Amino acid sequence: MRSSTQAMRQRGSFAQNFAVTLSGTTIVAAIGFVLTPIMSRIYPPSSYGQFAVFSSVVGNLNLLTTLGYPGAMLMPKLREHFLALVHLSLLLTVAAIVVLGGLLAFAAEPLRNFLHLEGVGGWLYTIPLLLLLFNLNAIMFTWYTRDKAFTKRVGVDIATTLAGRGFTISYGWRFGGPVTGLILGEFFNRITATVALLYGGIWRNLGELWRSFSWQNIKHVAREYKDFPLYILPAGYVQTVSAQLPVFALTTGFGSTVVGLYSFSVSLLEIPISLIGNAIAPVFAQKAIEVHQNEPERLPVITLDLYYKLLYLGLLPFGAVTVFGDWLFKFVFGARWEAAGLFTAFLGYYYVFKLTSLATSGIYTVYGKQRYQLIANCGNLVARGTGLAIGLYFHDVRIAMMLFGLGSMLGSFLTDLHILYLLRLPVLRIALRSVLLTAGVTGLLYLLRLGIESLHLPFLQ
């Protein structure tokens, strides 16, 4: 206990950084949980559906425009190489938004009709601006992580969440919940984050950033970290596309209301993932690189320890959402969102292993095995796409989402096991333990549901 307290007090330690980010992301998650029921009564599923498609388009472009180089910013030991990566990412972003702006001048209308984004209207033309804000946020967040400025980053997260949600609720309340309110809320969130990150300390480095510009250094880091556009970018893009498959598939097969139900359920499942992920991912990524460089024999130990802690942490809440999702959504968010609870039932256990992947996902990069990440993500894409295609063929959204959730869960779990295998850990024993724990918790929760159903409570009818 004393050693843990000392580690918490040690400036810049893993324990202190984790405690700071966890406390901040807990506040952010609490804000989301408190305000989401309000938003669900203002914005209908159709608005959520169109916003999900709009956001998916921006998310796809966000990955492509920087070629994955921001992901390398934690790697360089020399500051001049880090700054060169910042320069490279900014140049790629500016070039991309210029090209995209020209393309939208000709393709916006066909794109709007194809994706059924009639409610978005002229806001489709603002995608380049939103993309610029997304990329600036990503670059500055990584800068804060590299400098271990976790306290400042937490403050920005809290402020932007409050500002964005507050604006979205106010606009929706005033104008009746159109998709425009969700889009403007996202803009307000990103602008607030950009200003806060800049004036939180990065503005002091702008002179250094300007003076250090060097085409020679930019070319050097582009070659040195070429694995990021060659492997990390395709892997990240495939992962993004596979996660967004339901948005586009459900839009085509079942309409924007079903997409809204799906995106709403996923947004709630992502809250604890973001809560824990934003606390752990940046801190553990920095720690894993440091340990691999200085004490490589410790990396398997700390990775497995974190894997088990995340598994234990995720089993009960995600298991409860899986078993009781329809009841929870109907009671908390209203009857029109009950079907969204059924979607969470099909996705709950995938999110258990998405949570454990926070301990493993960065190891491919640390070991220089990025090609395996690409292979794993391609496998997930095929599994998810096949499940959705079967559901579309039978025109049954439940089959589509059940198979999508099953494919996602298996893909994430098998990827975890492969990474643990690379760390030379006992994979079969770890897999058996994980499966037995998952099955045991699921069985107990289903027995509990059967017992509650036997009581015939009025609010469950």
TrEMBL record:
Topology relative to the lipid bilayer, per the entry, is:
Multi-pass membrane protein
One GO CC annotation, please? plasma membrane
**Where does this chain mainly localize?**
membrane
Q: What is this protein called?
A: Polysaccharide biosynthesis protein
Mark the transmembrane ranges.
Answer: 20-39, 51-70, 82-108, 120-144, 306-329, 349-367, 400-423, 430-452
Where it sits in the cell: the answer is:
Cell membrane
Q: Which Pfam families match?
A: Polysacc_synt_3
Transferase as a keyword of this entry, yes or no, is: no
Kindly state which keywords UniProt assigns to this record, in alphabetical order.
Answer: Cell membrane, Membrane, Transmembrane, Transmembrane helix
The species this protein belongs to is: Hymenobacter edaphi
